[in-house]
Write a structure and sequence with these properties.
Chain B: This is Cache domain-containing protein. The structure holds 2 protein chains of 2 kinds. Chain A has 11 helices and 2 strands, in the order H-H-H-H-E-E-H-H-H-H-H-H-H. By secondary structure, chain A is mainly α. Helices cover 69% and strands 3% of the residues of chain A. The chains are: A mainly alpha, B alpha+beta. The interface between A and B is medium-sized, with 25 and 21 residues.
């Protein structure tokens, strides 16, 4: 993976930049274009190395990387095997989704959250009353898939499937259809990468809590946990929406 | 109450009798073809249509679901037709899709595959397939030891209830047919609609995977919505 970066022809992308003002913007533009053109895929070189290649300070580079993160072009992963990774536009839908999110009004976003809460919250409450052992096993299986997923696409699919399975466990065709519609409409937006990527581990543990509540037939807890989870997701979308509107 | 169980049993037995004819036709097609492929399943269609035509009041759909790897030209396949026209059921068999219809994990497929016996699933929300609250009856199809898939038929939960209305209303007390996981299949009780759970053992019914819970027993159960 690293090889694909270091073996770039003439390493043109990482050749030194001139001195001058607006260096952050220049770094952002050059790296942004390189990513858009597919010249850089996967992982960027380590910060020190990259800053040296571009002939900018690490402070400038970090500011540029932060801007690229916000555009959803790269994400930063911590820990062993961590670093800065290109996430877009290998997924060509990212630009389209960002445009859509920017063009949604805040009241439309709020409506999406209200509607999701009504559907998923009720589905979770009823699932706690009506789920069979088989339903619960399916929910666990889907969350297992979410945990094992390695790409945003897989995560989005498993996450969507989780919500649909909860509605099916509620024994409600109407709630299930509504949930399928919701996932089709906003599922992609919810997993849209920006800034720090969505922490899948947090989503997994949140879903597991819901499953435990359903399994324990604790209807109110299942509903409350689900509503909290959805509120958090919508809050995140609102935040990104305003950043996109402000052009930051 | 005996009338209710008897009528339910006779509806179910009629469906399984139809499925037996589809099963025989699948095995015949399978044995007579060199490389079994989707085109060969055309030979099974007349039997599927006959099955749907025979019980237009009961069946929402019927067909054959092929085990992965059996057909030469497709990894997975549903030869499934929905009443009344009949219409071919086109489901998403792409594993990468959000709507992917992973039927091998479905109880109506996995249980007959494992037990090699007929099975009744539901009522359950059949999403990705027909988007209906459904009862599904399936039976395994085998050629010797080789599992070829299942033949099956769908009965809408609402339709099944409608077929039993006379018997349900004739019961002087509250009564429910409950499946193995404790879910109400049909009931005449406003407190226990189809799909709700009723944690009562009830009386096991011969020839059906269900139990009959009557008022005296149901009275002690929690009023689950």
């Amino acid at each position: 993976m690293l090889d694909s970066v270091t073996q770039l022809p003439d390493a043109a992308v990482f050749s030194p930049l001139d001195d001058g003002s607006g260096r952050v913007e220049v770094v952002v533009r050059r790296l942004g274009e390189a990513i858009a053109l597919g010249l850089v895929t996967d992982q960027l070189p380590a910060e020190l190395e990259l800053a040296a290649q571009l002939n900018v300070s690490t402070v400038t580079l970090r500011a540029a990387l932060a801007a690229l993160r916000e555009r959803g072009l790269v994400e930063t992963r911590r820990g062993r095997g961590g670093g800065t990774f290109v996430v877009g536009p290998a997924d060509p839908s990212t630009a389209r989704l960002r445009t859509r999110l920017r063009e949604l009004s805040s009241s439309e976003l709020r409506e999406i959250g209200d509607y999701r809460c009504a559907i998923a919250g009720t589905a979770a409450r009823l699932a706690a009353l009506r789920a069979s052992a088989d339903n619960v096993a399916r929910l666990r299986h889907v969350v297992g898939r979410l945990e094992a997923a390695t790409s945003t696409g897989e995560r989005r699919r498993a996450d969507g499937r989780f919500h649909i399975e909860v509605a099916a466990a509620a024994q409600s065709v109407r709630l299930t259809r509504a949930e399928i519609d919701i996932q089709g409409e906003v599922g992609e937006l919810l997993w849209l990468p920006y800034g720090e990527a969505v922490d899948p581990a947090l989503v997994v543990s949140s879903h597991r809590e819901v499953i435990e509540a359903i399994s324990a037939r604790d209807a109110e807890r299942a509903r409350t946990l689900t509503e909290e989870h959805i509120d958090k997701g919508i809050e995140r979308l609102m935040e990104l929406h305003w950043r996109l509107v402000a052009g930051r | 109450m005996n009338e209710l169980a008897d009528r339910a049993r006779s509806i179910i037995e009629e469906v399984f009798a139809s499925l037996e004819e589809i099963r025989e036709s699948v095995v015949t097609c399978y044995r007579s073809s060199a490389g079994f492929c989707t085109a060969d399943l055309a030979g099974v269609r007349p039997e599927i249509f006959r099955c749907l035509g025979r019980a237009p009041e009961t069946l929402a759909g019927a067909g054959m679901i092929v085990a992965p790897g059996v057909l030469a030209d497709r990894p997975r396949w549903l030869e499934w037709w929905q009443a009344p026209d009949p219409t071919f059921l086109d489901v998403d068999l792409d594993p990468g899709s959000l709507d992917f219809y992973d039927y091998t994990a479905a109880e109506w497929f996995a249980v007959p595959e494992r037990t090699r016996h007929r099975h009744i699933v539901g009522p359950y929300v059949d999403y990705g397939g027909t988007d209906t609250y459904m009862l599904t009856l399936t039976a395994p199809v085998e050629d010797g030891p080789r599992f070829l898939g299942v033949v099956g038929a769908d009965v809408r939960a609402a339709r099944f209830e409608a077929l039993l209305l006379a018997e349900l209303t004739a019961c002087p007390t509250e009564v429910a047919l409950v499946n193995a996981e404790g879910r109400v299949v049909v009931a005449n009780s406003p407190r226990h609609p189809a799909g709700s759970l009723l944690h009562e053992a009830g009386e096991r019914l011969p020839g059906l995977p269900w139990a009959l819970v009557s008022a005296r027993q149901a009275a002690g159960a929690s009023a689950n919505p």
